[in-house]
Amino acid sequence: RTRARVPQCSGQLAGHASLTDMLEVAITTRERAEFFARAEREDTNAMRLFHGEEGCPGLAVDRYGSVALVQSWREPLNATQKAEVREFLLSRIPALNRVVFHLRGAAARRAAVESGDSLGTVREDEVNEDLTTFRELGLNYAFQPLRKGGDPSLFLDFRPVRRWVRDHSEGADVLNLFSYTCGIGVAAAAGGAASVLNVDHSQTYLDYGRTNAELNNVSMSNLAEDFFPAARQLAGLPMKGRAVRNGRGRRGARARRFSKMNPQCFDIVVLDPPTKTKTPFGAVDIKNDYAALSKPALLATRPGGVLVASNHAHDVLAEDWIESVVRCGKKAGRPVADARLLEVECDDDDFRSPNKPHLLKVGLFTTEFV
After folding, report:
1. What string of DSSP letters covers 223-266?
2. How far apart are CA 265 and CA 301, in angstroms?
3. Three-state SS for 101?
4. Number of other residues whose CB lies within 10 A of the CB of residue 355
């Protein structure tokens, strides 16, 4: 997920607190808020331990089972800081047996190269290491600490959505768009869904999803396909010249092939797009053209069903975005009977500054019965 740019962290807060002091405050704050107690009750051992806004912008510390993942987006930690953080985390949280440092973003990687510090960079032997597992909401998920893709194999801030989907999926047909490693699909299948279809452009991500399904003894279907041909065909929309299916184009250009699908409606459709990207079939831009995503997603939602959609652009207001999706449904002929935000803050383990809005916005759009 693309996040807002943040300033650098020097490892000290106004010259007073060391990085380990900040970590201690963050963990103690979570203990007092009974966050860890709630996680234990829900059989969860994956959570954010430290958010950059708690004193060190650009740094995040997450727990995935027995592994702590320390990610730096701006200024990388030096060797001394890494040693101190590793020692602190392993002693403070006995369930941890490993601390992994991961540089995120070009600026952080350049700084590490210039300083000659190779600790925490991704090495080929680490990329292909064995998977470990962690638990969330009573389900098992695979975790690979360092991957070429960069992002962790499950986004922790999406836990409220996985909880909602699990609790509302019994007997439902569920479509999971931009499924990544199929966390939503696993939650839906575990919740008793009649069918689950995960769609993602990456077969690698779907392979992670297959592993997650096997870890939980659930069944679901995966489709490696671009969002636009998959969603538009399921919605019964034409491709509008986005691709041809036979041979070559008129001028000899190689055709962009896609899987032929029949129109189909689902009781629950989950739409969790990236901020901005281009595909061979169209452009994803959640700030300027969310309708290109929400229209086919709404049309693939059965009347009376629910579209669960997300938007994590920092400069998009929740109210404006909700209104735009409702307006899109009306124009597309799949009007929305009820639209409301899923209160992700109630499950927020980021402990962000109260003066800043939460980046992740999740809307529940219930379509009208016809």
Report:
1. EE--HHHHHHHHTT---TTS---SSB-TTSPBP----------E
2. 5
3. strand
4. 6
Residue where the block lists tokens 């952080």: 108
Helix then strand count (H, E) for the chain reads: 11, 17
pLDDT tens-place string over residues 54-107: 888 889 999 999 999 999 888 788 899 999 999 999 999 999 999 999 888 776
SS3 category, 317: coil
Residue showing tokens 């300083």: 115
Residue 306 contacts residue 167 (beta carbons within 8 Å): no
56 and 4 Cβ atoms separated by less than 8 Å? no
Residue type at 310 in one-letter notation: S
63 touches 55 (CB < 8 A): no
CA–CA dist 88, 82 (Å, integer) = 10
Sheet of 195-200: strand order equals: 221-224, 195-200, 173-177, 266-271, 301-311, 361-367, 336-341
pLDDT of 111-169, one tens digit each?
666 666 554 454 433 444 567 999 999 999 999 876 655 788 899 999 999 999 999 99
Say what angle helices 227-234 and 291-299 make with each other, to 10 degrees: 40
**Given CA atoms 284, 285, 289, 290 in this order, what sign does their dihedral have?**
positive
Angle at which helices 183-190 and 159-168 cross, to 10°? 30
Q: Which helix (H) or strand (E) holds 21?
A: helix 19-32
137-156 burial code (b ≥16 CB/10 A, e <16): bebbbbbbbbbeeeebbbbb
Global confidence as pTM = 0.88
Contact between 187 and 219 (Cβ < 8 Å)? no
Contact at 8 Å (CB) between 370 and 303? yes
